[in-house]
Amino acid sequence: MTPDRSAAGLITPVQNTWCPGCGNFSIQHMMRSAIAEISEEEGIPIEKFVFLGGIGCHGKLMDYLNVNSLYTIHGRSIPAATGIRLANRDLRVICHVGDGDIYAEGLDHLIFAAKRNTDITVIVHDNRVYGLTTGQYTPTSPTGFRGRSTPRGVAEQPMNPLEVMLAAGATHIARGYTRKTRHLKDIFKEAIMHRGFSFVDLLQICATYSNLTDYYDAHIYEMQDGDLDTGRFESALQKIREWDYDRDAPIAIGTFYSIERPLYEEGFSVPPSGLEERRGRVQRLVEGWR
Amino acid sequence: MSELMRGLNTMQEYSLLIGGKAGEGINTAGLSIAGLFSSLGYRVYMYFDYPSLIRGGHNFAIIRAADRPIGAHRTRVDVLLALDRKTIETHKERIDGKTTVIYDSSQVKEGMGYGLPLDDIIAEERASPITRNSAMLGALARVAGIDREILEDVLRAAVPEKHLDSNLRVAARGYSAVESVFSVKQLDAPALPVLTGNEAAGLGLVYGGLDTYVAYPMTPSSGVLHFLAGRAEDLGIRVIHPENEISVILMALGLAYTGERAAVGTSGGGFCLMTEGLSFAGMSEMPVTIVLSQRPGPSTGVPTYTAQSDLHFALNAGQGEFPRLVVAPGDPHEACAWSATALMLSWRYQVPAIILMDKTLAEGACSFDLDASTPPRDHEPLLEDGEGEYRRYRLTEDGVSPLAFPGMEGVTVKANSYAHDERGFTTEKAEEIRALQEKLLRKAGSLKAELEGYQTVKTYGAPDAARTIICWGSQKWVCIEAAAGVGARVVQPVVLAPFPVEAWSKAMAGAGEVVCVENNATGQVARLLREHGFDPGRSILKYDGRPFAVDELTARLEEVFV
Ligand SMILES: Cc1ncc(C[n+]2csc(CCOP(=O)(O)OP(=O)(O)O)c2C)c(N)n1
Ligand code: SF4
After folding, report:
1. Where is the Pyruvate ferredoxin oxidoreductase beta subunit C-terminal domain (chain A) (predicted)?
2. Which residue of B has its CA nearest to A92?
């Protein structure tokens, strides 16, 4: 039986447990459409896609889509994704991570993946709160954010992850918003098709702990052609700094930066298969020792 | 003196020590000395001792050569090669009336023995300071009555072409500066290569089918990383050094999920960081092989010295309950064979495998015979046959589910760190959680049954001896030699998890008086034996970062066996 690989066919029978109104629903739908369309347009079979999840509400996507998946541990999906790409360069590897997951627990891996330019896509479900552990602050929560672990308000400033990623060497940097669904799908498709490390910070509504719908609707705008030069570091940086995740400012969504650089995995020769051959090599090495 | 001791004393054997400052190439010089004796058909063993600094301090290597397999050092030496005064001062207890001392007279003013003016020699030969070692090697060859051609052959094998000439000239100066004291006979045995435990483990992994080795540097496991990285092209493997140990094990699991056989290497501190990945491997049933090389802890401990103090950490690391394979090879031959076996079994049973080494074994070197080290059995992973809908965690009788990898047509592979059902979907249902846990336990049982066909427990010496020495890992050879001195036999568990209860009972039948020898402070293998209902007898422990010397252990055994 050939499995149903249409967008609708990618849904699993697993019962969905996200809160009503959660931004994860639009991510799920648009990601599903994005890969179904890429599959159709580029002739890439669905079997060639691999999703990775961290731990958090975002990770449940692993259960909801009928795609190869590795549901990893908190903050650690990126090194696993790197391993997957190294082992098989035909695969499209997409990490779905949370902002607590990847900016707190897994920041080192994120920075190194950008530095390496391994060909994976990282989609951060940035709801600016810990959803699954019931409402603590994250590295992108605004100053003064009152979470369950910071009842008097966070004293730290949020980080601007786009700026961190630009500095770290990411070759594709974008931002989306879960209520701009069509735009979202295009952002996904572009990031997945980018050759190299691509990064999307997705401003996500958390209906339960951080519902910024009104704020986002009032501030977010879609970048237009000519708003910036996505091939230039300085131009991207300027745009990335327009909003710092803290003060009131217009919030641009779209692609900030996109360049080409050699891929990490190209630096390794692909190992020859065959146990017997490998053993012959061991034998020869010992025979001609030093 | 016992019959056995007299027998031992008639055997051919030599002990040599070379010492100097870190940065003077003592390790390489030691390996060249080992090569010299190896080329005459001797079996050699080298112990290398060095503090955690890059220049200065005191480094030394003790090389033993014998006409039979050995794997430990003795305190006394026949020849002491001193590149500085500290070497003579530090090793006074190793010298007796029969010891020949050769020293650098530009460093040591009034020494006894042969003084070589190394500063003058290298100035006159216009050679680099590192060639001092060649002068020492030359002098040693002459003292030991070894032909000059053999000396030159060893240098040719060890020294890069462009430095060869100056090394040969300097070696010749050393050779002619001294006289022959004794005469080392050529033996009728093949010249075996000299490998460290780290190199042997690396070769074993490749032999077992390794595709990628991933590691973050940490002494004493770095030797595996350096060796495999240096030979990656020759061996047809990939070697990766990522940002930290957390990344190391996660990358390895990503490779495994995609169908590549990966191994990682580390020491205690790095293994601490890997434990979350280890549990993930346990739950998601992804194979990974971990070379865990022990050094004294806790924490940073003593980085360049030795200990056997992470056994229970290796056995129990990670949250939850899942099966694992833990093996502790006792020498480079076992390190090679069991690394290959561990890698294959980790894939066959989809469990993490830990190869428990220590500094003594990892960085110690000995004569290596690949044919004597091949693993007992080949294993291939269980692969999906393509019939019906694929379920990554299909419930089977032996607990092992067939593997498929992403990219295969018509197959969706869902691996999961959460409790999951057969298809890999997250579950919190009581009966599914129970079924999953029981599947893991069934796998543990299958692995245990598999291991019944292996030599999981080894015994050495007279089977009817009334005394038994228990040891594990790198203490194997020192115990075998010391046992001969006190009329005991030796029992060595090679597999520590799943513990081979039956093989152990059999090996210990009629054990008589029992002593457990370990390089730790609390008797970790003794504790493991007690947990399984066995009496480990009394413990002889050493926990100063140094391995036992044969004579030292013999004396300790004589105190205990009265
Ligand atoms: C090592 C570890 N520490 C802590 C946790 C508990 N934990 C689960 S989800 C989570 C935070 C999730 O927040 P985020 O990444 O923002 O994801 P969201 O739930 O908002 O999608 C934490 C701290 C864990 N699972 N593992
Ligand atoms: S807590 Fe927030 S992120 Fe999690 S499911 Fe509910 S709305 Fe979505």
Report:
1. 206-268
2. B407
Q: List strand residue ranges (DSSP E) for chain A, in order.
A: 49-53, 68-71, 92-98, 120-126, 172-177, 198-203, 220-222, 251-258
**Shared-domain flag, residues B162 and B291:** no
Provide the residue range defining the domain that includes B518.
457-560
Q: What pTM was estimated for this model as a whole? A: 0.97
Backbone angles phi, psi at B198, to 5 degrees: -60, -45
Question: Do B106 and B200 share a domain, yes or no?
Answer: no
Q: Which residue among B333, B352, B372 closes a domain? A: B372
Q: Can you tell me the ipTM of this complex?
A: 0.97
In chain B, what residues touch A62 (CB-CB under 8 Å)?
Answer: 414, 416, 426
Judge if B45 and B171 occupy the same domain.
yes
Tokens of B377: 């059995």
Over residues B309-356, the pLDDT tens digits come to 999 999 999 999 999 999 999 999 999 999 999 999 999 999 999 999
- For ligand 2, the distance from its centroid to the CA atom of residue A55, given in whole angstroms, is 13
What is the mean pLDDT of the segment spanning B249-273? 98
Q: What is the mean pLDDT of residues B461-485?
A: 96
d(CA A256, CA A219): 17
Instruction: Look at residues B113, B147, B176 and tell me which one is the last residue of a structural domain.
Output: B176
Q: Given the DSSP bridges, would you call strands B414-416 and B114-116 parallel, antiparallel or unpaired? A: unpaired
B498 belongs to a structural domain: yes
CA–CA min distance B473, chain A (Å): 23
Separation of CA A210 and ligand 2 centre (Å): 9
Atom of ligand 2 nearest to the CA of A23: 8
Residue B384 falls inside a structural domain: no
CA distance A56 to chain B (A): 12
Q: Which residue of A has its CA nearest to B416?
A: A71
Residue B457: strand pairing partners? B493
Q: Domains in chain B: how many in total?
A: 3
